[in-house]
Design goal:
Elements (H helix, E strand, L loop, with lengths): L4 H8 L40 E7 L5 E13 L4 E7 L4 E6 L3 E6 L5 E2 L2 H45 L7 H16 L3 H6 L2 H9 L5 H12 L3 H15 L7 H25 L1
Antiparallel strand pairs: 1-2, 1-5, 2-3, 3-4, 5-6
């Protein structure tokens, strides 16, 4: 008898058991910073700028001019303006300085100075854009790799989750946690880079059918019976997620059981 017969019996039983898956001085006197210097929250450090210290002569929106020593963190943008985000030694706090209000900038590493802040920071922005493009491409590859690992499993889980035509929040949470657990198996670099929302979007676009289920189980069986066993247990958790099991869900689990049983039997025959 198949090793999954006992799993089927356990599912149909009334009870269930859980399974764990794996600065300066102003020319006009000291003034408060105007609104264009303040920001609500810190930007993430840009490696290309982080650690660069510059002296700037800054004219704020009220016409006040001050000398600042700034530890640069990042260039940030909105719809119309660019800002230098950094730590201001004069204010001992983080500030955003609008680039077109910087009247002079002095690079303390090289001694160079210029009155064109846009031109000064242009090379950093170019490098940052290239770096971001590389990160985006890697994220895309990482996402494809995660989908390659969990695609068939997600097809199967969606078949079970959508049996009652209702995909509730707890079912989504269980599958989301499963994806993250599997993605971690590919290593920290992939896990940190992949687009989880994109994987979930792909999953929701699947159209569950019995033929899709059979093909997914058949391909997955080549990885080993233990993966099918874990998938069965997670499917069982999903069915019980809303504390109610209806006839359609029982039928879906019967069909999953039959597909798993057939795939395992075929694998055993081919193995001799």
């Amino acid at each position: 008898m198949s090793i999954f017969a006992d799993l089927r019996k356990r599912f149909l039983a009334a009870g269930r058991d859980d399974h764990e898956l794996p600065g300066g001085v102003t020319q006009h006197g000291r003034v408060d910073d105007s609104a264009d210097m303040l920001a609500a929250s810190e930007a993430d450090p840009e490696p290309l700028l982080d650690g660069l210290s510059v002296g700037i002569t800054y004219e704020d929106a009220d016409g006040n001019i001050s000398e600042r020593l700034v530890n640069c963190i990042k260039i940030v943008e909105n719809e119309s303006e660019r800002y230098l985000w950094g730590y201001c030694h004069l204010r001992t706090d983080f500030r955003a300085f609008q680039l077109d209000r910087i009247r002079e900038i002095r690079d303390y590493r090289t001694g160079a100075h210029t009155d064109d802040a846009e031109r000064f920071f242009a090379p950093f922005r170019t490098l940052a854009e290239q770096d971001q493009a590389a990160k985006t491409e890697f994220a895309s590859r990482a996402t494809r790799e995660v989908l390659g690992l969990v695609g068939d499993e997600l097809r199967i889980l969606m078949f079970v989750a959508m049996a009652d035509r209702h995909f509730d929040a707890r079912e989504q949470e269980l599958i989301s946690e499963f994806i993250q657990t599997r993605a971690r198996q590919l290593g920290d670099e992939i896990f940190q880079a992949y687009d989880h929302a994109r994987v979930l979007e792909w999953m929701r676009g699947q159209v569950p059918s019995f033929s899709v289920l059979e093909r997914a189980v058949q391909r997955l069986s080549a990885r080993g019976e233990w993966e099918l066993r874990a998938l069965w247990d997670l499917s069982k958790d999903i069915v019980h997620a809303d504390d109610h099991v209806d006839d359609k869900e029982v039928t879906a689990m019967e069909e999953l059981y039959n597909a798993i049983d057939a795939a395992v039997s075929q694998q055993r025959e081919e193995a001799g």
